[in-house]
Amino acid sequence: MKLLPWIGALVLCAAVLAGGVVALGDDGPEPKPKRSATLASSEPGKAIRDPEEDQAFPEPESSDSHPVADSPAVAVETAETGVSPGAPSDEEVRRDLRELERYYGRGGGRGRGVTVADGMAQAAPDVPAAVQDVVAGGNAIARFPYRWGGGHGSFLDNAYDCSGSVSYALAAAGLLDAPLASGNLMGWGRKGPGKWITVYANPGHVYMEVGGVRYDTSGRDGRRGSRWQLASRSGRGFEARHFPGL
Description:
alpha+beta; endopeptidase fold (from Nostoc punctiforme); 6-stranded antiparallel β-sheet; two-stranded antiparallel ribbon; globular
């Protein structure tokens, strides 16, 4: 009878060796939000190409190079010193929010404090500062070209793919220290949708919703189309993640 515990331990070890590392589910203690990680796909040594790349109008290799973006921090400083070109005024934001309230009501649920005009987003004055910073970061590269792998090695690039775009915007609010691939963003923050910001990620693609507005490289209107889109999309097939408090 004394051998039973040892037999059980040997069986468990064999199962781990055969199946790989056992991952803990979300039923256990919540991990601290992931703020930085090496830029790799969710499967080590294998890059997963964006399956929605053709819907993002990739930049042709023959086209002229776009200027390199500033750091996310500079994007926020620029937004604080002046309204981004093409962004709606505070009065236009309030007017649009009043229209939204007719359909979504006031209070409770998810925050809907962001509007879009001419492809640029504007956050209402009373939304959390982090949301305003994410909007500023998103605006800074909203019309940049799409290139698979863009924005991965550094936040400073001249084209951004889906995960590079989301990473840049999150970094503007200090929610990331380094770019993450879409597979890595499946483990960012905590599980489930947030009130203000929700990242939707799977191994090949990622987009997010900020204040009720979609930020996505897929579905843009042409090569210089904005990543900010009023049209929503289904989150089916994606892991919904949020940052605590947002």
